[in-house]
Amino acid sequence: MKIKIARNPCSGRLVKAVVFLLAGVFLVANLSSAATQKDKKKKKDETQPKTVMALGDEQQIDYLLSEMLGAWQIGDVEKLRATYADDVSMVSAGWTPPVIGWANFAPIFQQQRARMQRVRMDRSNTYIRVNGNTGWACYQWDFSADVDGQPVQSRGQTTVVVVKRNDHWVIVHNHTSLSPGGAQSSPANTTTPQPTPAKPNEF
């Protein structure tokens, strides 16, 4: 014997209405979420600073110098690397041959920087000139640090030559000079003075 179950036609319509309603809620929620994310992205884009490329050439070079000195100060070799050309030449104030190429300079920087703590480097009196894809800048610097545990201070001047490569300024030449009487060290009760770098990085 077969039992027939009578279906209420209203219940089928009710199920369809509920499914349709849930689909609508889901769609509205997704659209609202997408709009919120778009607004957040728009606000984030509006609050981000202008890119370096939007600056004029002199401002880009000034920013490059700040990045270079900042990386030097914290010992960030990768960030420092981004400011120099592969074929950079470095002339120090010491009676040493120029260092040619980033590959030769990097280990010198790392070795000397490892001896320093509490490094501070201030730049002042910066002068920048641009001529096409070439530029140059000179500035004075004031350096202080603990080198091999001893406080050291020095002052000097640096001149850099920069070139624009692939729309990006890089330093191709760096010449540092130590000001006469600019090096001051204060060893703490040592009978034999220890040699310490008198200026940042000897460059």
Features:
globular, 36% helix, 7 strands, 4 helices, alpha+beta, 203 residues
What does this protein look like?
The protein has helices spanning 9-47, 57-74, 77-81, 102-113; strands at 84-91, 99-100, 116-131, 134-147, 150-165, 168-178, 184-185. It is built from four helices and seven strands. Strand 5 (150-165) and strand 6 form a beta hairpin. The chain has one domain: Nuclear Transport Factor 2, Chain: A, CATH 3.10.450. The protein has 203 residues and is of the alpha+beta class. Strands 1, 2, 3, 4, 5, 6 and 7 form a seven-stranded mixed β-sheet that branches.
Low-confidence stretches: 17-35, 41-49, 185-199
CATH class: Alpha Beta
Describe the sheet with the most strands: 7 strands, mixed
> What structural category characterises the helix and strand content?
alpha+beta
Helix content: 25-40%
How are the elements arranged and paired?
Layout (H helix, E strand, L loop, with lengths): L8 H39 L9 H18 L2 H5 L2 E8 L7 E2 L1 H12 L2 E16 L2 E14 L2 E16 L2 E11 L5 E2 L18
Parallel strand pairs: 1-6
Antiparallel strand pairs: 1-2, 3-4, 4-5, 5-6, 5-7
Summary?
With 203 residues, the protein is of the alpha+beta class. The chain contains 4 helices and 7 strands.
